[in-house]
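Before the break, one more example. Copy the sequence into your notebook; we will annotate it together after we see the structure.
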Amino acid sequence: MTRTTCTLFLAIALASTQVHAEGPLRLDVEQFVSLPADVRHPESITSDPETREIYVATFDARLPQNERNNQLLRYSEDGRLLSRRGFGATPLTGIEFRDGYVYVLNFGASRLQRVPGRFHAASEIVDVASFGALAPPAPAPRLVSNPDGSKDDIRFGSAGLPAINGLKFDRSGTLYVSDSFQGAIYRIADATTCKPCKVETLVRDPLLATAGALPFGANGLALNAAESILYINNAGDGRVLRMPLPSGPISVLAESVHGADGLMFHRGMLWVAANQADAVVALDEQGRERVRAGAFMGIDQHGAPTGLLFPASTTAVGDWMIVANLALPLTPTAGDEWEEDVTRWTLARFKLPK
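Here is what the structure looks like once it is written out:
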């Protein structure tokens, strides 16, 4: 074998090794904001693309109810608290900024509401739409084929309680809303101007429900750049789903995204807040993980998470991704979750890759 041939084989071997070594880009996170001392469990986050102001809504579901202090908070781009509006005992889930208003899914009241983007402590909260029990309350059973040739027949229960969770506007003003308990996606046409607003059940599907330990099915929503595909997280199943618009069918895009919660499409990728993995992952449109940001690194001396702990949602502000650290204990057992030790709740952030 000549020296030239050896050099060629070595170059091919090195190139092959480099290709096989490629994997998701790993990013570190840093603490960005400490919420006011009387506010806990930041669940959802959005931003105004013009002013870059950041909005945060909380999921405070403590018992007894009179201890709850649910808030909508407004921050400047550099993390200064500008205003807050109380929502009392009703926990909040998805929020989105649109045309000068913040649209809020009031989970506890089963309503879509809005407040002005420049809200203050006494700003009017306007009801836009209400959600109720569907008939039947649970979606159809899910039939699962197993490798050994057997089949599982998963039947879902539901008491008819709407669990409105994620929301996403398209460019025309149509709003899509997920229901985590009833396995549904709703559509509200002209949601910024409709009076009264009609809630249409766009689809119900067994893939939108879950029998997992995390009791939330359909969760975060996102649209691709062309707005031809609606992406849906199923938190309990750890899946990202895709549904061609206007009517499907729904299929699985990605598996094993543990606790797939908030979802956004940004710079050609799907950014998933994986709340049970304490990470934010970015998937390409084929479902392959390309970026993984953050990890849980402990509780600091102020009682705040270091890194990510139960991240629930994200928003992009300039070159930064801002993350809501929900840090919500899930189990009734004392001492089994780090979330139980949190006494100060935070937003984290990381630099977006170029």
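The chain has one domain: 27-351. Residues 3-21 form the longest helix (19 residues). Try to locate both features in your own notes.
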